[in-house]
Fold these 2 entries.
Entry 1:
Amino acid sequence: MISLQHVSKTYRNGTVALEDVSVEVEKGEFVFIVGQSGSGKSTFIRLLLKEEDASKGDIYVAGKNLARLTTWKIPHLRRNIGTVFQDFKLLAVKTVFENVAFALEVIGKPKHVIDQRVPEILDLVGLGDKLNNYPDELSGGEQQRVSIARACVNRPLVLLADEPTGNLDPSTSVEIMRLLDKVNRIGTTVVMATHDQAIVDAMRRRVIELERGQVVRDQARGVYS
Amino acid sequence: MAATSFLFRETTSGLRRNGLVAFAAISTTFIALLLFGLSLLISRQVDLMIQQTTGDIEVVVYLTDPINMDNVHSLTQKLTDLPVVPSDGVTFESKNDACVRFKELFQDQQALVNTVDCNALPASLRVNLDDPEQFQQVSAVLQGQPGIDRIVDQRDFLTRLFAVVRAFRLGVLIMSVVMLVSAAFLIANTVRMGLFARRKEIGIMKLVGATNWRIRTPFLVEGIFESLIGAGIAILFLFALKVAFIDPLYTQIKFIPWVHNGDVIAVIPWLIVAGIVVAVLAALAGMRRFLDV
């Protein structure tokens, strides 16, 4: 599903973010990317979304070589990738329903698809009764659920989560992890960058540790350190 | 259907959000297109006048009193012998003919007609030339002949008149271009402000895989919309100006063919095309950098 072969990324200002990283992620896997701030976790995510291009090496996502992907095909890559962030990225002027529907509207899905899928996915994340609330009426955990619903509503092959529990307290974080686990169990490949030790230790999933841009550990059913 | 209403919502909310800049963009577009329309109408007016006059542009040979018909015949003969003058190219206009024509031309200004004594109007030979450039040949052959008061090349007067009108039109055209450029900058600015105000939405749109055009279209439509409003007001003003200034001339100065409503209507598509082209270029320029994936 995801394949990085000897990937290096040097930013224009000379910062080396990733150095000779090779990683294979199979379909349906759940992978933690762990490491200190600045270890290259976010760059890893950005490369998969083709927000940045690799300086060296090849990246394949869902069978596509990202280096060969023309600019106008990037949106189609991203429709196969759901994204969840630490800061939720919800639109304050839109309701829960509208926030999730937005993701389908802007890729041109017809209304009947939106009306069917949005309540369905919001049920799945446990917010079936909050369709008409605004984000600021929700708790942090609920807001993150909305953003997960938005990421999953188009049924992506891969879910990329960048510190999804970074703004949440431990018990809420656990709920979010249960949800991500659920998403994974219905077949979505999940890649989650985090430095939340407790969560990584509790989940017992594959752990890839980055340090100064290099993979220093790749362990099935691993712990944080 | 869903897509259309989505587009409409995105566009109108953009207009509401930065109303003041949008107003500036609309009013500049309006002035620019008004000037552009004016320059087109002036061109049309010049064309009408040229069309009317080139047909019967003449060299007029005014004759001294009293008229000697033998002399008239010999002058006519000399002129028709010239290769540039067609055999029926010379007409004699007697004092009486001149009087009739004068009365006809100024029939609406009886006061003028009454004050002018028809005797004061000179008789003349009107010479049509195959090639109006060959005026010099006419004056050369008539040089030193008796009974000639003076030779007037109407074209000379008209060229000078048209030169003035053309210069005026050029001035208006240059002003309209300057205004169009500033309108373009203002439209680019409204588009850029709209993008800035909605950078979070745009970020999300990019993440969920909206195509560049899906993201850009609302801003493009917003720019075109502003420009079309400007164009609409400009068109109304053109009609108003035409009614206020040209319509009275229909009865006051009859011998000049003035522009009509049809000419103003013919200008409308040009204004709309110019407005759209400027808006699209400006909006695209405003979106550059901002929207690269």
Entry 2:
Amino acid sequence: MRGYVRTLTVTSVLLSVSIALGQKEKPTYKYHKDALVYAELAKAPQKARAKRNPFEKDPDAIAAGRNLWEQHCTECHGDSAEGGRKGPSLLVEQVQSSEPGTIFWILTNGVVWRGMPVWSKLPEPERWQLVSYLKSLGVAETIPAAVPAPKPPSHPATESSLPHR
Amino acid sequence: MFISRLRVLPVFLVIALLAFCLPRRIGAQENPYIVAYDHYLEEPGSLEIEYFSTFGTQRASNDFHAFWMEFEYGATAWWTTEFYVDAQSTFGDSTVFTGVRFENRFRLLKREHFINPVLYLEYENKRGTDKLLKEDEGHDVESDYAPSNARLGQEHDRELEFKLLLSGTHQGWNFVQNTLAAKNLSNHPWEFGYAIAASRPLALKASGKRCSFCEQNFIAGAELYGGLGDRHSFGLHETSHYFAPVVAWNLPSDWTLRLSAGFGLNDNSHRFLLRWGVSREIPGFGSMVGRLFGNHR
């Protein structure tokens, strides 16, 4: 019995440590204060950018994408993609002006070291439906408070964070 | 360690029900596997609570029902940590707690590739009465499970288990290959095992309506797993192997139900293993705990 108590104690401590680390990694402030949050968009390879959304002209894709959004994305990015505790706003110019292929590439690969998991477990058509929904939102009229104003162009990171158009 | 079944099972079910009564909503997209692991980790900050049951037939002894609770937490996007508590009832014998497991999975690559490796490390502290058959390793054979719980309970194992999980998803199909190496911390040789699996959602395109019975909510597949002997006698000799069709039903209301019917492929295997599981994800669990301890960020 003592062995079980010991094991339970050890595992509880390890779980607590992992939860604490999870907290530490929580990207809220780090991401929202840093224009680099959108830098990943610029890393999408040309081949991925060039991909066309097969649901571009499908009116049902936006509704389906919204369902998928509510199921998988709101926890981090907020109900209307305005940004949440764990993920940045997606209603900003950098995202909305990106090619559909770039957003699809981000969904597929995640930004693992910054807390966004890979979403390739959603089948490819579902990821494109999500892209359709995201692109339908457009840029927010008022920039959410959590998103910083763009930094001066002299900042090297800002330049690289802007997606190619 | 011998406890009435009437006391053990309700504890597991109450914990599971508590999890299911939590109000938060997130859509699960869980794979249907019971034994194999793919490369998808828990979302960061989310806790998934799972209950699983295995009913197994046993030649020359009593059939059994093994059950376990899993608490799976996404520490980061590249690290998932998991804690198991398990027990079993052998019909006509007794109900016993069988042990605990602590498991960690680490994603090794930053981006998605054709094959994605994940490193799996587990520590097990279990009794000989353990009948989960969560993995098949070494020379595990059906007759090992035949003695009474009183006799099996005399054995106490501490084991380290390493797995290399390889997985990839293409055209909606997920393919998985797991290689296992386990070392009992007492003087036992390294033991080996494998699991191979594939699955696919019944539909790849999401519906515009929220629905429970839409085809995209169902993922069907199959698992093949078994032992590969130990360091002294590597191979298929005196090992057991199973083939199991599996299905998962991901409900929009957060629940995931899994069902698996496993068939033993040789005389060393249990003839039939019926498994089912139910799980619920609690998003933002880490933040909730953080706030509990005064982290108001």
